[in-house]
């Protein structure tokens, strides 16, 4: 196989869509699996649609997912520049050649002189696609098309063909929406006397209810998924399976395994459904697989980038490492963590006194339980989860109440929550002084409410 050179060529018209990033991933995997070169090229020739900050958002999304590029912005390379707006002379030169050879002609539009490519009026144009095989297009159904606008900027058709040739791109991997444009590109290659690259048109990503994935179905930008608390590797693994499969059962891959396993031959022709439940499952799996110290660092980085209102100031790492094993089994995303743990770092929480009173209990019984619990935790030695569990279970028996009733009261007293991380381990992390203070505060709240 000749040198593999692939490119991801987004337009800077907004945040990177998951469909575009899936294209980038497949392009990157193919290059990495064949010791090839992955190029990032910014197709910024439609100046009217350009959105400020888009280039940075695209690069940030790629970096977050670990999709490093070998040539492109901030890196450079032998075939630069890598912004099409800086390559206008190449497109003008190609347009002049096409006019001279009779394959293109000038025309006047409302803004001035532009150039159109003259499509053959009869016969057909064949596009050879790695996924779909040979696809024939009737030339009579394809109109002449603009290749150079009156402002001197090229259209996508001319710019992509010229750059793919000059940058020695071996495989053009893009969404299937571009398949209908491929005969135009084949004709451009032929007219310029160039060998067309291999074309690979990837299947659309579909919403779970059918139809192409769009904003009305929820988040579509990869950077939105980052903010929602998805791990980069979970996102890579999930996107890799949108239109590609290794076999009919394997779903979890490391990046190295994906590089080793990926092939264009196993890319599907039919659309791939974006199943958010599957992404949640996969993200939860990778959260649970993380080491406690590793996940603590990931959470701290996430909170620095997207500060949660519940956690201010930033939690200390040493305590967080102790908390992580109590919560990670229940997390689907990183965003789920903050609401479960504020009480570990601050006792500035509130609750209604009535929340202390469990089902089939009253104020008097709850006060007796809290006062007795103060004595038990004050005397527990050592102050650890195992001892606390043993002593508090005995206390429930002594009080002739159910363990769940006692623990429900103590949970509200120490966290303000009805559902919280495992109680005994939480008490150990909070420490004796804080727990006794919380229990005494609960006694005072309940006594004041009864008076």
Q: Please trace the helix and strand order, writing H or E for each element.
A: EHEHHEEEEEHEHEEHHHEHHHHHHHHH
Strand content: 5-15%
Number of helices: 17
CA radius of gyration is: 31 Å
Under CATH at level 1, the class of the largest domain stands as: Alpha Beta
CATH superfamily of the largest domain: HUPs
Tell me what the structure shows.
This protein is α/β, with parallel strands linked by helices. 44% of the residues lie in helices and 11% in strands. It has a three-stranded antiparallel β-sheet. The N and C termini lie far apart (86 Å).
Helices and strands, with pairings:
Elements: E1 5-8, H1 18-33, E2 37-40, H2 54-65, H3 88-100, E3 104-109, E4 112-117, E5 124-129, E6 133-138, E7 145-148, H4 156-166, E8 171-175, H5 182-192, E9 198-202, E10 205-206, H6 222-227, H7 232-240, H8 255-261, E11 272-273, H9 276-289, H10 292-305, H11 317-327, H12 342-345, H13 363-379, H14 385-399, H15 403-415, H16 423-430, H17 432-450
Helix pairs in contact: 1-8, 3-4, 7-9, 10-11, 13-14, 13-17, 14-15, 14-16
Primary descriptors:
alpha/beta, Rossmann fold, Glutamyl-tRNA Synthetase, domain 2, Arc Repressor Mutant, subunit A, two-stranded parallel sheet, 17 helices, 11% strand, elongated
Short description:
The protein is an alpha/beta fold.
């Amino acid at each position: 196989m000749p040198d593999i050179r692939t490119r991801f060529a987004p337009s800077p018209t907004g945040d990177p869509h998951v469909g575009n990033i899936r294209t980038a991933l497949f392009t990157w995997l193919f290059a990495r699996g064949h010791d090839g070169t992955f190029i990032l090229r910014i197709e910024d020739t439609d100046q009217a649609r350009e959105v400020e900050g888009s280039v940075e958002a695209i690069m940030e999304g790629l970096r977050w997912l670990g999709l490093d590029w070998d040539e492109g912005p901030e890196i450079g390379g032998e075939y630069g520049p890598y912004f099409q707006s800086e390559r206008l002379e190449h497109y003008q030169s190609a347009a002049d050649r096409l006019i001279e050879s009779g394959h293109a002609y000038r025309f006047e539009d409302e803004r001035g002189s532009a150039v159109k490519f003259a499509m053959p009026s009869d016969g057909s144009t064949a596009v050879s696609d790695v996924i779909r095989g040979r696809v024939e297009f009737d030339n009579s159904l394809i109109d002449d098309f603009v290749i150079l606008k009156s402002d001197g900027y090229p259209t996508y058709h001319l710019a992509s063909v010229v750059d793919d040739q000059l940058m020695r791109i071996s495989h053009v991997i893009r969404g299937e929406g571009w398949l209908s444009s491929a005969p135009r590109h084949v004709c451009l290659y032929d007219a310029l006397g160039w060998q067309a690259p291999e074309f690979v048109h990837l299947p659309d990503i579909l919403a779970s209810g059918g139809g192409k994935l769009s904003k009305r179905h929820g988040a579509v930008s990869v950077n939105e998924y980052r903010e929602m608390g998805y791990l980069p590797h979970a996102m890579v693994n999930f996107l890799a399976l949108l239109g590609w499969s290794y076999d009919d059962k394997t779903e979890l891959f490391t990046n190295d395994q994906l590089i080793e396993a990926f092939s264009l031959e196993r890319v599907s022709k039919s659309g791939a459904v974006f199943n958010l439940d599957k992404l949640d499952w996969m993200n939860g799996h990778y959260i649970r697989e993380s080491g406690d110290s590793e996940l603590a660092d990931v959470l701290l980085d996430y909170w620095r980038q997207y500060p949660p209102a519940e956690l201010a100031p930033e939690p200390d790492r040493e305590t967080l490492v102790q908390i992580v094993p109590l919560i990670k089994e229940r997390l689907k995303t990183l965003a789920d963590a903050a609401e479960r743990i504020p009480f570990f770092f601050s006792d500035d929480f509130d609750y209604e006194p009535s929340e202390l009173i469990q089902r089939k209990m009253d104020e008097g019984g709850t006060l007796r339980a809290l006062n007795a619990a103060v004595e038990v935790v004050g005397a527990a030695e050592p102050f650890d989860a195992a001892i606390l569990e043993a002593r508090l279970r005995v206390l429930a028996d002594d009080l002739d109440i159910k363990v769940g009733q006692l623990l429900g009261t103590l949970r509200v007293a120490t966290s303000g929550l009805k559902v919280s991380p495992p109680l005994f381990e939480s008490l150990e992390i909070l420490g004796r002084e804080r727990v006794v203070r919380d229990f005494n505060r609960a006694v005072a709240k309940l006594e004041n409410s009864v008076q």
